[in-house]
Specification:
Layout lengths: L7 E6 L2 E7 L5 H14 L4 H21 L5 E8 L3 E9 L12 H9 L2 E7 L2 E9 L4
Antiparallel strand pairs: 1-2, 2-3, 3-4, 4-6, 5-6
Helix pairs in contact: 1-2, 2-3
Length: 136
């Protein structure tokens, strides 16, 4: 019997939304769409929406490489007073690690967002993308 997987979205507060999808490239479209929808609602310009979508896609791709089969990607969008923080995390398969911060992927993320950081501890890796909210 086949199982239909569906993304889970949860509004944790008025300023936080979390979306969880299987750690599989076929599900990244859900996160890209959620990112674009939220960015549009926050009145980001079209090019900034696309930058954020690409950044989320690139961060997810980095996490997919180190996630175990059957794992999940957790994406948390937090709207602050002046910035949007997107934290994407996944379990880590064995001793795999995120790429070194000198890798091209990090340069891409840094160019598309205001700030990017990552941490890997206790069997999970998290990438945080911070983008300034549009003024007015």
């Amino acid at each position: 019997m086949s199982q239909i997987l569906q993304p889970a979205a949860t509004a944790l507060t008025d300023n936080v939304v979390a979306v969880t999808v299987p750690a599989d490239g076929g599900w990244l479209g859900v996160l890209r769409t959620a990112t674009a929808g939220l960015a549009a609602r926050l009145r980001f310009a079209g090019d900034k929406i696309e930058d954020l979508r690409i950044a989320v896609d690139e961060a997810c791709a980095m996490l997919l490489v180190i996630a175990p089969p059957g794992g999940q990607l957790h994406c948390r969008f937090e709207i602050g007073d002046s910035e949007l923080t997107v934290a994407i995390s996944a379990p880590v398969n064995g001793k795999k690690k995120l790429p070194e911060q000198s890798a091209f992927a990090w340069k891409v993320l840094s160019g598309l967002t205001s700030r990017v950081d990552a941490e890997q501890a206790d069997g999970r890796a998290t990438i945080r993308l911070v983008t300034e909210l549009p003024t007015s």
